[in-house]
Amino acid sequence: MLDIKYIRENPVKVKDNIKNKFKEDKIKLVDDVLKLDEEFSLLLKEDQEIRTKRNTISQEINKLKKEGKDASAKVKQAGKIPSELEVVDSKKKEIGERILKIMLQIPNIMHKSVPIGKSDKENVVKEKIGTPRKFDFDVKSHVELVESLNICDFDAARRVSGGGFFYLKGSLAELNQALLKYGVDFMVRKGYTLVEPPLMINKDATSGVVDFEFFKDMVFKIEGEDLYLIGTSEHPLIAMFKGMVIEEKDLPIRLCGISQCFRKELGAHGIDEKGLYRTHQFNKVEQIIICKPEDSWKYYDELLENSKELFESLGLPTRVFESCSGDLGDLKAKGADLEVWSPRKKGYFEACSVSNLTEAQSRRLRIRVRKGDGKYYPHTLNNTAIATSRAMVGILENYQEKDGSVGVPEVLRGYMGKEKL
Question: Is residue 390 annotated as a catalytic residue, yes or no?
């Protein structure tokens, strides 16, 4: 969420930013919120005038009483003031709520380096890391591999839970746990504090972290409760600081979250009826940073470098795929995906997603930093460290052998005690 003062002073820039995101339907919101802001300012002025009048009348009443004169007319006049203030306060509340509703819909200002484009088809490849392996045999999909090795059961999961779930068995379950442990150890060595968050989150906290209208269609609602299963640990990790004032000396805050995540995966993509890539339930290690505004782009690079280094250590070819303006979420000032090579599809798939939300998220959550006698809104950033199901897809396909076995990346062998699945 932007600062209303920024919108007042830069309406053209805010509108141009919306145009560059190809969301022309939202341009009108800028004029709407500025009109309401003017009304709100007039109400503030009226409120102050009424309070000044109340003080003046109070002084006049005291003077009349001291002089032994009749003050009944002034007392009657003063008796009307509470209802006048009540009317103004009611209007202020109504307009304030309308302003907030609109403000939550106006996109964050993008970083100047974001490429302009209408959709993900215009995202930009910024870097490639590692060289895809050349196979001298026909590569199998990860589903064919795990089923032939009897280390994953999609059919049983469908009977028990429906599509989009799986049973991990034997060495694949061990690989999943090894990836979690390795991901946590990797992040902790980088100076991040490990946090295991709640797996449910309420509407108020969620509305501060993300666009609730988008969120509610993505995750599972707990029937009869103001609770939702989390889609990512980023949400409860950031919401942990909701309404708080952080001392500047405590910045940056670096957190590493580990959790199960739950998503409906509706829409064009849907879920994998058989497969580990797009599912209703998965495990993830997340990384977030809360920092001073002047440091946020340094930490954006740090978050991305963490994921690049982690996946490179797993021996998986990757690329950095930067989001263009039209593919950038409204809260994001800049974002990119780290994608892993799939030899089966002969293309890359998303494994991590880094975002800098500048102060848009902290404003929504009312997270502030104390500096001397003043306060300011910090910047918040996030990135997946590792989603194990997608990492397993990459390992299974890239480390497969002609005999149907799958090698274990060297950095995970100590965690698993074996070299092959």
Answer: yes
Average pLDDT score over the chain: 94
* 322 carries an active-site annotation: no
* pLDDT tens by residue, 344-400: 999 999 999 999 999 999 999 999 999 999 999 999 999 999 999 999 999 999 999
Residue 284 burial (C-beta neighbours within 10 Å; 0-12, 13-18, 19+): buried
Catalytic residue among 84, 122, 350, 413: 350
Question: Minimal CA–CA distance to 254: which of 289, 293, 295?
Answer: 289
CA distances from 193 to 36, 180, 255, 257 (A): 43, 15, 5, 8
363 among known catalytic residues: no
pLDDT tens figures, 5-53: 999 999 999 999 999 999 999 999 999 999 999 999 999 999 999 999 9
- 111 falls in which pLDDT band (50, 70, 90)? very high
CA 410/CA 314 separation, integer angstroms: 7
Q: Are 385 and 352 in contact (CB under 8 A)?
A: yes
In the set 344, 363, 368, 390, the catalytic residue is 390
> What is the CATH topology of the domain spanning 4-103?
Helix Hairpins (1.10.287)
Nearest residue to 122 via CA among 331, 327, 341: 327
| Catalytic site includes residue 51 | no
Please report, as a single letter, which amino acid is at residue 339: E
**If residue 220 lies in a helix (H) or strand (E), which one and from where to where?**
none
Question: In the predicted model, what is the mean pLDDT of residues 173-180?
Answer: 97
- One of 263, 344, 363, 364 is an active-site residue; which one? 263
The arithmetic mean of pLDDT across residues 153-178, rounded, is: 94
Which one of 171, 233, 307, 353 is the catalytic residue? 353
Q: Judge contact between 33 and 106, C-beta under 8 A.
A: yes
- Percent above pLDDT 70 for the chain: 98
Q: Taking the CB of residue 343, how many other CB atoms lie within 10 A of it?
A: 18
- The CATH H-level (homologous superfamily) assignment of domain 120-416 is Bira Bifunctional Protein; Domain 2 (3.30.930.10)
For the question of residue 119 being annotated catalytic, the response is no
Please tell me the distance from the alpha carbon of residue 351 to that of residue 387, in angstroms, as a whole number: 7
Given its phi and psi angles, is residue 157 left (phi above 0), alpha (psi -120 to 50 degrees) or beta? alpha
Structure tokens at 43: 């109400």
Catalytic residue among 133, 278, 319, 370: 278
So where are the chain's domains?
A: 4-103, 120-416
Q: What pTM value is reported for the model?
A: 0.89
